[in-house]
Each structure stands twice: as structure tokens, then as C-alpha cells.
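Sequence, please.
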């Protein structure tokens, strides 16, 4: 199917190269511009979008430019732990581990989220691997393996690291914090921030709650899961395709996506190149898809959406109950969007309520007006409203900085 779509896209591309040729007499005519707009839009719908690089530009501070160094700290079969540190960054700068959601897109979809922290933070990111690229010999990767990866990463980074869980990643991140607290680990996070995470979807039931109530895992297994074709390293692995996940996401706001593509065609027709480039930049990333291991997808549905095992106190890890009441001294900050129709108001904030032994003065929450789900991670609402508040929260609870102030 993908091969036939790519072949069609290549054919359209060949036709488009003719319509754009300077030798085409109607290139600048209305008919020529209309054909070009139609072909361009069609190609974008049909083409394959590879994973994009991080490619962070130099960080500008007081008219000076500081290059960003990119390092792979740990390379595991299903994830790479990435580190981004600008040159000249203070040794006492806060360390922040961003745990990206694995829900059909690569972690690079949140490049803008991480970029806001590069000037003043040492940034770590979970760069999840497309399951179709992981050979079967590497074994399974489920919900609890996800938690195990987070625990390994935080232990590698070391003490005084701040957690930031994005969307679906929030539940396993909170579970990891509870496990580290129960162990009395020196590597338990210095703080936790959660952005639009479905911590307890029983709170203020919304669309996800309704859908979760009718999910049939046997039907999902039969219809939505597919084996990786032989042309990929993960041949034979059962996965939940990113294309299916994308379709589900887009169906929740299909009108806005259709309007965006119609506007894009109009921008091509009228020569509004800047607006067209912004559209391309967003959808080049949005259409770059990642397949999830079938067991991770099914176990996430079961633990987060169907049975809510963490908020109900039913989640176990390596034979032990995971209890958020074990978290007694890790500050927590939850962020929600007022117009979020996926993770409705209160579902993310529920994380603080689950930490029943955490003092109220260590619990903070914020609701950004006028933004939906994706506006919590990108755009002006994130840059001007959310990111500064997360950074301020981290700064106030950065233990390394506090220790240096006391010593001085």
C-alpha cells in the first residue's frame, strides 16, 4: 500500500516538475497556478515522510551565538537517550529529562518544546525508535518495559534531574517517580512537570473517556495491528502502525486539518510562500510516523485508558505495587489547556491528588487559556505562557542551584 502511494506521489511529482518549468507557457496563468496548487497538495497527501533530524540552530544569548552539542547517551533497541547542551552552559544548570509520548509520532515532533529550554538547561530527550526497525530478536517492548527504560535513563543521568512528561508519557513517568521514591533512590527526580497527561481519565469525563469505555481489545488486535513487512529490520513484529494512529488523531479535529490543506492550496495559488513554508514545516513533521510495538499499544490502552491501573492502585512493577503515596517530597506541576478536547480539564491535575502524602505547598497547576491539546506543546501559547512557567517551577526546585547558594 505504502509503495503504491509513493509511486503515485512520484508520478504526480514528475507532472508537477513540468507545470513548474520556466518553459511552460501557462505557468504564471490562473490555470497553471491552479494545477500547481492541486498537484502540490496531492503530492503531500500521498508521499512518505522520513524522520527529521534535530538540527538545532545556535542559541542566541545577548547577541552571542552558542552551538548546541547533540549526544547519544544510551542507545537501546527501542529508544535512544539524547542529550542537548549548548556550549558555555553553566555546570549548575538544571538537568531536565523530557519523556516524549510514543503515540504515532517521533520525539522530533516536540522539537519546539525542547528548544525553549536549551538556553538555560541541560536537555535530555527519549527518542523512541520506530518498532518496524527493531528486529524480533530484541524481544518485546510493553508498558512496563517503557517504565524500565525511564528508570534506566534517570539513573544514568543521575541525581537532581527534573522530569517533564509529555501527554501519554505522564503516567509511566509518574509511576517511575513512585518506584524511585519507594526505593529511597538518590536519583528520584528533583521535580515533575506534566503537560496534558491523561493521569486519570475518570475525572471530568471527555472524549477519551467515552472512547475508552467502548474499546474492545480483541477487536483492536484483529483490526488495528499489523505485522511488519519483510523489507524492514523488524520483519514479522506485530505493531500498531503510526498511520492508523494518525488517522485517529486527525479524526478528532478533521475540520481544522481539511481547512489547513485548503488554505495551503490557496497560498500556493496566490504565491504566499511564507505561509506555505510554515504549513510544510508543520506537516512534514506531523506526517512523519512511528509504529509502536503492539504490546506497548495494547498495554497502554489497558493501563491508562481502560482500567486506569495507576490511579486505582492496581499497577505493579517487578512484582511490587506502584503507589503514588510513596511520593512525599517531589514537587509536581501540571499543565492543561482550556480548549483541550483530548485530555480534559482536571485529568492531568489528578496527578497531584494521586500523590496523597505530598504536601500541598509542593503541588502547583496551570491552565493555559485559548489552547487545545497541541497548543500545550507548541505555538505562542506554549512559548509565552507555558514554557516560562515550567522553567520557573524548575528553577525554584533546582537542588544543585540551591546548594550552591547556601555554600556561597
Amino acid at each position: 500500500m505504502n509503495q503504491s502511494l509513493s509511486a503515485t506521489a512520484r508520478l504526480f511529482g514528475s507532472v508537477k516538475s513540468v507545470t513548474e518549468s520556466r518553459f511552460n507557457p501557462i505557468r504564471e496563468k490562473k490555470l497553471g497556478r491552479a494545477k500547481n496548487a492541486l498537484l502540490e497538495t496531492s503530492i503531500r497527501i500521498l508521499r512518505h515522510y522520513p524522520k527529521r533530524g534535530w538540527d538545532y540552530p545556535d542559541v542566541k544569548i545577548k547577541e552571542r551565538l552558542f552551538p548546541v552539542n547533540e549526544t547519544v547517551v544510551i542507545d537501546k533497541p527501542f529508544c535512544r537517550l539524547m542529550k542537548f547542551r549548548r556550549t558555555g552552559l553553566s555546570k549548575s544548570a538544571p538537568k531536565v529529562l523530557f519523556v516524549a509520548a510514543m503515540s504515532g509520532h517521533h520525539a522530533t515532533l516536540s522539537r519546539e518544546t525542547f528548544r525553549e529550554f536549551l538556553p538555560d538547561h541541560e536537555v535530555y530527550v527519549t527518542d523512541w525508535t520506530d518498532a518496524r526497525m527493531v528486529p524480533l530478536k530484541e524481544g518485546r517492548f510493553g508498558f512496563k518495559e517503557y517504565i524500565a527504560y525511564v528508570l534506566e535513563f534517570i539513573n544514568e543521568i543521575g541525581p537532581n534531574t527534573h522530569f517533564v512528561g509529555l501527554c501519554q508519557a505522564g503516567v509511566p513517568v509518574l509511576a517511575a517517580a513512585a518506584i524511585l521514591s519507594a526505593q529511597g533512590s538518590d536519583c528520584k527526580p528533583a521535580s515533575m512537570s506534566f503537560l496534558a497527561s491523561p493521569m486519570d481519565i475518570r475525572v471530568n469525563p471527555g472524549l477519551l473517556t467515552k472512547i475508552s469505555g467502548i474499546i474492545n481489545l480483541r477487536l483492536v488486535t484483529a483490526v488495528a495491528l499489523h505485522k511488519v513487512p519483510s523489507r524492514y529490520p523488524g520483519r514479522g513484529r506485530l505493531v500498531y502502525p503510526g498511520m492508523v494512529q494518525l488517522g485517529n488523531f486527525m479524526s478528532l479535529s478533521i475540520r481544522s486539518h481539511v481547512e489547513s490543506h485548503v488554505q495551503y492550496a490557496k497560498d500556493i495559488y496566490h504565491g504566499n510562500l511564507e505561509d506555505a513554508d510554515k504549513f510544510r514545516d508543520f506537516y512534514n513533521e506531523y506526517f512523519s510516523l512511528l509504529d509502536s510495538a503492539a504490546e506497548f499499544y495494547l498495554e497502554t490502552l489497558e493501563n491508562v485508558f481502560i482500567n486506569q491501573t495507576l490511579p486505582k492502585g492496581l499497577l505493579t512493577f517487578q512484582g511490587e505495587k506502584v503507589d503514588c503515596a510513596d511520593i512525599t517530597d517531589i514537587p509536581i506541576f501540571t499543565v492543561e489547556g482550556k480548549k483541550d478536547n483530548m485530555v480534559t480539564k482536571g485529568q492531568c491535575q489528578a496527578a497531584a491528588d494521586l500523590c496523597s502524602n505530598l504536601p500541598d505547598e509542593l503541588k502547583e497547576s496551570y491552565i493555559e487559556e485559548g489552547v487545545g491539546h497541541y497548543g500545550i506543546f507548541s505555538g505562542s501559547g506554549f512559548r509565552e505562557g507555558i514554557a516560562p512557567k515550567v522553567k520557573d517551577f524548575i528553577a525554584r526546585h533546582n537542588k544543585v542551584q540551591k546548594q550552591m547558594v547556601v555554600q556561597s
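The chain has 14 helices and 15 strands.
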